[in-house]
Design a protein that fits this description.
Layout lengths: L68 H14 L3 H14 L4 H13 L3 H14 L4 H15 L4 H23 L5 H19 L3 H14 L4 H13 L3 H14 L4 H13 L3 H14 L4 H13 L3 H14 L5 H13 L3 H14 L3 H12 L9 H14 L4 H10 L4
Keywords: Repeat, TPR repeat
InterPro entries: Sel1-like, TPR-like_helical_dom_sf, TPR_rpt
Pfam family, one: TPR_19
Length: about 425
């Protein structure tokens, strides 16, 4: 699927919030690295060695369990946030913040959850409260930057440019705070800044600068799988699929239990034609994080590419039930399934959502194609078909199928 999609990310270790400040933050922009990556399984076997995680709140040993009521609710928030259940995470963090309004972990978690739920004004208020308590909190500056990035993805023109400039300025503030730290904390925090900066450059359309930024982040934190994930994703957007696959393989080896990296690795394998390896990798990612909309959705995409429509529909539908707003790509593939099956009403509905939530030329094209076709109860609408073909060309002026669609309709670009 071509064209930039709304990209949301997660923390490899939200439990790092329990560590002393500065607290690890991951929000809506690029995925951020965990501070202390766990030792990874070595060699090719690690690609298949991750056991299904069994994290339960009740499994925390009494000696390590938070003792204050606010800290207990923060622990619940961390659990739900890692599972991708952001509404429940929000409730837990909000309760923690009400019990202890100066709990920095609660405020950071609440701000992150509000960003995930797209309540950007509330997130700004929460994170500014955190900065009043701790004006050197690097994670708060990064979170505010990520909020600006998320809003920029829904804007165009000068407003989008201004939001991305604001995001970079906030990262500059985070960088200054990180520069005052001693080693090894300085390199760790700077890796987060450079990782996030790479994503802003990507949103600005400068993929070369994004690759340079992610590479710098990786130099500062060379064993971190999350940075490798972002670097590999950018190679994919650049059209360098072999290097993208290679980089995602390194990400999986760095952290075999990370369902995000494994799910995306599976998708890249499928796109490169290696379906024999892609299918078990996608299935394992879904088992690693069974409530992750991202992992389930990528399993659905891999199944679609493998021509397994039932498995694809099951996983895409469940992914969108878990998270109906943050993954337009999954609406796109569900719409493609509908279009393949001749269900034009459902295809138009899902492709409309994909197109509304992203700036994807492919989503706009296939929405146009669904209106060019006709079926019982879903007559053709050449006006809407042409409108969406033109929209596809706005996103990608060289989009050949959209150009052909306008020619079939006898319309000019």
């Amino acid at each position: 699927m071509s064209g930039p999609l709304l990209h949301l990310s997660r923390s490899c270790s939200a439990r790092a919030q329990f560590r002393p400040s500065p607290v690890l933050l991951v929000g809506v922009g690029a995925r951020l690295p965990a501070p202390l990556p766990a030792p990874a399984a070595q060699g090719q076997d690690a690609l298949f060695s991750a056991a299904t995680p069994t994290l339960k709140l009740s499994s925390v040993q009494p000696s390590s369990r938070p003792t204050s009521p606010a800290a207990n609710y923060v622990a619940v928030g961390v659990f739900y946030y890692e599972q991708g259940d952001y509404p429940k995470a929000f409730v837990a963090y909000q309760t923690a913040a009400e019990l202890n309004p100066t709990n920095r972990d609660a405020l950071l978690g609440l701000g992150r959850a509000q960003i995930k739920l797209r309540d950007y004004p509330a997130a700004a208020i929460t994170l500014r409260r955190l900065l009043v308590l701790d004006n050197r909190n690097i994670s708060a500056y990064i979170a505010l930057s990520q909020s600006s990035q998320a809003q920029a993805q829904q804007r165009t023109g000068p407003e989008r440019a201004a939001l991305l400039t604001e995001a970079l300025n906030l990262l500059g503030q985070a960088e200054r705070m990180a520069g005052a730290l001693g080693q090894p904390a300085r390199d760790e925090e700077l890796s987060k800044v450079w990782n996030e900066r790479g994503y802003v450059y990507r949103l600005q359309g400068d993929r070369r600068a994004a690759i340079d930024a992610f590479t710098q982040a990786s130099r500062l934190n060379p064993r971190n799988g999350v940075i490798l994930y972002n670097l590999g994703e950018t190679y994919s957007l650049q059209g360098d699929l072999p290097r993208a696959v290679q980089t995602l393989q390194k990400a999986v080896l760095a952290d075999p239990r990370d369902a995000y990296s494994r799910a995306y690795y599976a998708r890249l394998l499928a796109q490169s034609g290696d379906l024999a390896l892609a299918r078990p990798q996608a299935a394992l990612a879904a088992r690693l994080s069974p409530r992750s909309a991202y992992a389930l959705g990528q399993y659905g995409v891999v199944s679609y590419l493998a021509r397994e429509p039932l498995t694809a529909r099951t996983n895409l539908t469940e992914a969108l039930r878990l998270d109906p707003i943050n993954y337009p790509d999954f609406y796109y593939y569900l719409g493609r399934l509908d279009l393949d099956g001749g269900d034009l009403r459902a295809a138009r509905e899902n492709l409309t959502r994909a197109s509304a939530l992203s700036r994807s030329a492919d989503a706009a094209y296939y929405l146009g194609l669904s209106y060019e076709r006709s079926a019982a109860g879903a007559p053709a609408d050449t006006g809407k078909a042409g409108e969406n073909y033109r929209r596809a060309l706005q996103f990608d002026p060289q989009h050949g199928p959209a150009q052909s669609g306008l020619q079939r309709l006898g319309l000019r670009p």
